[in-house]
TrEMBL record:
Record field: transmembrane: none
Pfam families per record: NAD_binding_10
Species the sequence originates in: Hevea brasiliensis
PANTHER family found in the cross-reference section: NADH-UBIQUINONE OXIDOREDUCTASE 39 KDA SUBUNIT-RELATED, OS04G0403500 PROTEIN
Protein name: NAD(P)-binding domain-containing protein
Domain (NAD(P)-binding) ranges: 74-201
Superkingdom: Eukaryota
Organismal lineage: Eukaryota, Viridiplantae, Streptophyta, Embryophyta, Tracheophyta
Length: 301
């Protein structure tokens, strides 16, 4: 099969007009379900001062280029939009599924995402998942006990099962830190739903599933056309907690101490940790706040 659609433009330095063969067969690796561009360039060249009939030995160049196609569930939310933006900036193809579809603000990355309007409980997965290399779920939120169980738990369980059915090789869940809370508080719909979703990810994707457990996430949250600058609180708090961590460590085993002591994390760092998860096949399992920051750092470097 020959396809140019998935392949980035390739320039071959050092080849004169005597390129004899360039082929771009694309293969979908059924084991890893990754899209690869495999191309082969055979080129012969002649030095300017050599006779025309001189031909050097042909050079064969074979390379595999992985192309990622990521589905973000909730791509227009606070965390989801940071993930979409970061993925687009890394040249990753992005599809978002959320009920209200495309956001109305005019940022340039918005045009580079495919926006599908739909509810995760009634999604036409054929339209959303085919060809995806990873699904990232930002589905979750607060509300009544029933609502929290449904959006944090059932919605994610449904999404994990759909992704598994479609053979998507990786599932990344934005979950939450447990704040060191006593177990009676962890039995609320929010945490129960989150933990149900986590165990579904880890059981269906034991060797590639990713669960990120951030605490408070700061950044600029858009609500009804306004930006709420959560970073005005989150950023200084993160710095203070880092500076005092040697002192506060002594209190970290106290129940619920993390409500005060868990460091906030920048929404862009959560997004970069997701990019790291998408691109690094050795990154799977449960990740704490510190590990999220480390993963983000790897992508920044
Ligand atoms: N924000 C924080 O400080 C924080 C901290 C720790 C963990 N988390 C977790 O991080 C995740 C993202 O949080 P967030 O603050 O970004 O939430 P958010 O802004 O409310 O975003 C939620 C997204 O999910 C979509 N959505 C909701 N119900 C849906 C459904 N039935 N079908 C399809 N899409 C649906 C929403 O879009 P539509 O309304 O258009 O459908 C929106 O895009 C959540 O799981 C949250 O628990 C957040």
């Amino acid at each position: 099969m020959t396809s140019f659609a998935l392949c980035p433009p390739i320039s071959v330095l050092g080849c004169s007009s005597s390129i004899s063969r360039v082929s771009f067969p694309t293969r979908l690796n059924s084991h890893f379900h990754k899209s690869y561009c495999k191309f082969q360039v055979k080129c012969s060249y002649a030095e300017p001062n050599l006779k025309d009939d001189y031909k050097s030995a042909a050079i064969d160049v074979v390379a595999d280029i992985k192309t990622e196609r990521v589905v973000v569930l909730g791509g227009n939310g606070f965390v989801g939009s940071a993930i979409c933006k970061a993925a687009v900036s890394k040249g990753i193809e992005v599809i978002s599924l959320n009920r209200s579809g495309r956001p109305t603000y005019p940022d340039s990355w918005v045009d580079q995402v495919t926006w599908i309007s739909g509810d995760v409980f009634y999604a036409n997965w054929d339209e959303v998942l085919v060809g995806a290399t990873a699904v990232v779920s930002t589905l979750g939120g607060l509300g009544s006990e029933e609502q929290m169980l449904r959006i944090n738990g059932e919605a994610n369980v449904a999404a994990v099962n759909a992704a598994k059915e479609f053979g998507i090789p990786k599932f990344i869940l934005i979950s939450v830190h447990d704040y060191n809370l006593p177990s009676f508080l962890l039995s609320s719909g929010y945490f129960t739903g989150k933990r149900k979703a986590e165990s579904e990810v880890l059981s269906k994707y034991p060797n590639s599933g990713v669960v990120l457990r951030p605490g408070f996430i700061y950044g600029k949250r858009r609500v009804d056309g306004f930006e709420i600058p959560l970073d005005l609180v989150g950023q200084p708090l993160e710095r203070i907690l880092r500076a005092t961590e040697n002192f506060t460590k002594a209190f970290s085993s106290l129940p619920a101490s993390d409500l005060l002591l868990a460091p906030p994390v920048n929404v862009d760092d959560v997004a970069l940790a997701v990019i790291n998860a998408v691109t690094d096949d050795d990154f799977f399992g449960i990740f704490t706040i510190e590990q999220i920051k480390e993963a983000a750092q790897k992508v920044k470097v």
